[in-house]
Amino acid sequence: MSMIAQDVRDDVAVSRDVLESLPQSLYRSLPWPSHTIDACLKIVDEAQRMNNPRRVRAWIDVERAVPDSSQILGCLDGVLSHLTRPGVGFSDRVRFANKIRQDAFDYLKQTGATAKAESSLDPNAVVLADGLMSALRLHDPMLAEHGEVTADFAKRLAMHIGADADTIARTTLAARLHDIGKMRISRSILAKPMPLTAAEREEVLAYPQTGARTLAELPALAAIAPLVAAHRERFDGNGYPEGRAGNDIPLESRIVAIADAYHTMTLPRAYRNALSPGEALDELLARAGKQFDGDLVRAFVSMIGYRARIARSA
């Protein structure tokens, strides 16, 4: 993947040279039709030149059906990541990129497009998930908040790789509920500085299966149970509870694992300090192909890389 030229003509606009040099690598790295990526590149450039993030809505209206509306943010994230490489004025470009993406998200939500992924779920699944998350919030508010943030990251990654609506819906729900089994773990253990005793460690390692059993007892959420059970498996087969490896681990679980790890690394713990977004991305890359699916890690880094770069430069 080529780096953006350092001589960007001004602090906000992306140069025409950049637009002409990026597409070759961009088209190889993003799973959408070339005309969709080309149109997105042009509208983002136009939005930057006009200093008007709402300009991207014109592209959304045209591309509403191709790709599927639930995947639009994924394509936009990929383009923005390529257009915000370090260079002159890149902090301003990244901030504007964030405005573009937020406006796109708000517009899709306003027009009902973002509800599409949820429509494939049993309506009772969402209601039950809300109830379980309310119970988790009473047990541990921070853990519940982590579940919601993880779900947002996981959903965006599923969208970014071009997953279908059913996969996006299952991924989002599994991410929200991935820690539900921790309700059976004492908060004193969860907050305890390392190391844990053997008995405490066994209790902690059991939480994916504990959560899965809870979900399996609820017909509307039974399909999510195996995804929650597998989210602590490792790509190299050294995870738990079953030691599954590679593509034998459900795609949804592999996505949740990355989203979970990224957000967890950016939170302070009793036994360590929080990592910066950039440091957390570096850690994911270091574990790609070992703990995590390497292709998904690279897609995740591409998806949110420009946000980490602005945090790193602050």
Give the arrangement of secondary structure elements.
Elements: H1 16-21, H2 23-29, H3 34-50, H4 56-62, H5 72-82, H6 90-110, H7 123-139, H8 141-160, H9 165-176, H10 187-190, H11 198-205, H12 207-216, H13 225-229, H14 251-265, H15 277-286, H16 294-313
Helix pairs in contact: 3-5, 5-6, 5-8, 5-16, 6-16, 7-8, 8-9, 8-14, 9-14, 14-15, 15-16
Please, could you describe this protein's structure?
The structure is a single chain. By secondary structure, the chain is mainly alpha-helical. It folds into two domains: 16-115; 118-313, Hypothetical protein af1432 (Orthogonal Bundle). The protein has helices spanning 16-21, 23-29, 34-50, 56-62, 72-82, 90-110, 123-139, 141-160, 165-176, 187-190, 198-205, 207-216, 225-229, 251-265, 277-286, 294-313. The longest helix has 21 residues, at 90-110.
Q: Which features characterize this protein?
A:
single chain, 314 residues, mainly alpha, Hypothetical protein af1432, 16 helices, globular, disordered N terminus
